[in-house]
From TrEMBL:
Organism encoding this protein: Arcobacter defluvii
GO cellular component terms attached to this protein's record: tripartite ATP-independent periplasmic transporter complex
Keywords: Metal-binding, Signal
Keyword Cytoplasm among record annotations: no
Taxon lineage: Bacteria, Pseudomonadati, Campylobacterota, Epsilonproteobacteria, Campylobacterales
Binding annotation for substrate: Q152, R173, E210, E235
Residues annotated to bind Na(+): W211
Protein name, per record: TRAP transporter, substrate binding protein, DctP family
Length: 355
């Protein structure tokens, strides 16, 4: 009887080891939809780099198939598709969902808010990531920082903006909370998909547009049509996002969960520094090839009106959503803490050393 028990125990151990080895060798396949087309670099690069990192670090056990917007044909349907399980993951931007859930808005960028280094610090060390999960939990989704474009430019304009009157009736593509501010100042705001922007500007369907910065604007060709290039105010830290269907994530083994999260974090930061270099390189070419481009800042009365509208809208929306107020209060508190250091370090260094 004892011999039989030993043999059975040995068999059980062997079967357990075989099962364990088989489990370790199992390939998990995920699908990811992006808001970006195949040519929208570096946004699409972040998604593809993340998928490659996950595959490489897992030794091929985690395979992520990336579908660009020109394949799935629904650039602004990414949240719904991941929520419904049509795709397991998405790479997009949180502020696109403000019409579905206003609480998602601050996780991309807020006008006159945190810069990219400040916002990354808030996400990972100031409670921002926990708040993001709290907001997306009701959608059955996990959300993580997906790469920052840094300070975005204020946009390309066909005509110079000299006063508030120049904004009234202006047709402009500008998404997110900044669009709400511009609408409050009399701008006719649209949110055209990326692939439609050049044609809309060329045909006069819109008079101005905000996209990103030199890195991505150069390939779009806006500078060939609209010569006035305004500096930023509305998106000082435009963070993309990786979203994951929670049920799908929970089905992954623990090591692949960790690999996925590491791949997300590395590819997000890499997009930030890649874009920084691309901005510098593209701007050198743009100003050399198109010397008539005029870099402008909005006049002080316009900026003051933007700040006033920004504050009024924040107060209004915070009253309507306690959760949004919680997120905004968290960002404000963190900015009060971190901005003093930003001023002591980056600001004063640049102020004292710029020619």
């Amino acid at each position: 009887m004892k011999k039989i028990f030993v043999k059975l125990s040995f068999l059980f151990v062997c079967l357990s080891l075989i099962t364990s080895l088989q489990a370790d060798d199992k390939v998990y396949k995920l699908t990811m939809a992006t808001t970006w087309t195949d040519t929208t670099s570096p946004l699409i690069d972040a998604a593809k780099n993340m998928a490659k990192l996950a595959n490489d670090m897992s030794n091929g056990r985690l395979v992520i198939k990336v579908d660009a917007a020109n394949k799935h044909k629904s650039p602004f349907g990414v949240l719904d598709m991941v929520k419904a399980g049509q795709y397991d993951m998405g790479h997009t931007a949180s502020y696109y969902w403000k019409g579905k859930d206003i609480n998602t808005l601050p996780f991309t960028s807020m006008p006159f808010g945190l810069t990219s280094p400040e916002q990354y610090a808030w996400f990972y060390y100031g409670g921002g990531l926990d708040l993001m999960q709290k907001v997306y939990a009701k959608h059955g989704i996990l959300s993580f920082p997906g790469g920052s474009t840094g300070v975005q430019m204020g946009g390309w304009f066909r005509k110079e903006i000299n006063s508030l009157d120049d904004l009234k009736g202006l047709k402009m593509r500008i998404p997110g909370f900044a669009g709400e501010i511009m609408a409050k100042l009399g701008v006719q705001v649209t949110n055209n998909a990326p692939g439609e922007l050049y044609m809309s500007l060329e045909r006069g369907t819109i008079d101005a547009l905000e996209w990103v910065g030199p890195s991505m604007d150069i390939s779009m060709g806006f500078h060939k049509i609209a010569p006035f290039y305004y500096t930023g105010w509305h998106e000082p830290a435009s963070e993309m996002q990786f979203i994951i269907n929670t049920k799908k994530f929970e089905k992954l083994p623990a090591d692949l969960k960790e690999i996925l999260l590491v791949a997300i974090r590395v590819s997000a930061y890499d997009m930030y520094i890649q874009n920084y270099d691309m901005n510098a390189t593209a701007w050198q070419k743009m100003k050399a090839d198109y010397p008539d481009i005029k870099v402008k800042t909005f006049p002080k009365p316009v900026m003051d009106a933007m700040k006033k509208a920004n504050q009024e809208l924040r107060v209004q929306m915070s009253k309507e959503s306690p959760l949004l107020k919680e997120v905004l209060d968290s960002q404000d508190a963190y900015m009060k803490k971190v901005r003093e250091w930003t001023k002591m370090s980056d600001y004063l260094y640049l102020k004292d050393n710029l020619e």
